[in-house]
Amino acid sequence: MKTVQKNVIIIGSGPAGYTSALYLARAGYSPLVIAGALTPGGQLMNTTEVENYPGFADGILGPDLMEAMQKQAEKFGAQILLNDVISVDFNGDLKAVTTDDGVTYTSKAVIVSTGSQVRKLGVPGEQEYSGRGVSYCATCDGFFFREKPIVVVGGGDSAFEEALFLTRFGSCVTLIHRRDSFRASKIMVDRARKNSKINFVLDSVVCSVNGVDGDAQSVTVKNVKTGETQNIEASGIFVAIGHSPSTSFLDGALDLNEDGTISVQGASTKTSVPGVFAAGDVVDSVYRQAISAAGMGCRAALDAQAYLNDLTDLNEQ
Description:
The chain is α/β, with parallel strands linked by helices. The protein is built from six helices and 21 strands.
């Protein structure tokens, strides 16, 4: 098995990983970014227009934003590796990260920025109309559905937050949930029930997303108690059934929170293991925005740099 030593390793890409890489590269650390084999750039690679990232008055396509971030990091010396991490060993001073091609990379500092994966419905049409009606982020995409019918799928606080937010834009919002009770807090449910623009379709599941000319137009919904189906008009279909932090490769190497995100110390990006830091959606279950992930990526780079500087000072004493 081949072993390669690096100054700093960043597992994952996206706004957090690329921002970490940029800061560490400019500081002279030549970081290795193990960006992933299938989706380097994270969830923004599946996003069309991004209008709320500062600095782009006319908006920017998600893949274009990630490509620009990657190139900027590479310009200052970051190395991008398109492989997946299959295991880690964070014991000892040198942390070991093994990729799917059998190579083990070691370094004294590691940043984990693997993000999270949205939970999907897994129904016909969902993938086909992703970015063309199907969305997983109301804050990102609600604006595109002004005065159009909108559907939100889910029954937790996130679904209710998105439904209430989307009433600012849509002509109406239909919340679809598979049961007749909700996981959401009572105050969120009460607010939604008082909002005249929100309708409820309960005891029901989405069977398919339907569209015309490349854009979503409706969803087919089945009542789980009666078996009856109906089509509900919807230009925007917002899926809010949760996120799964991408941490399976860690296999217990770091402490996790109850929701599966990586536990960090206070406002820092320090994890339960000295020398290992975490940033972005793999830590953040609240905001999950590109700009907040980028900011956390900056903090992770500065935390890692301070850690490495302290090690140098100790060795020189």
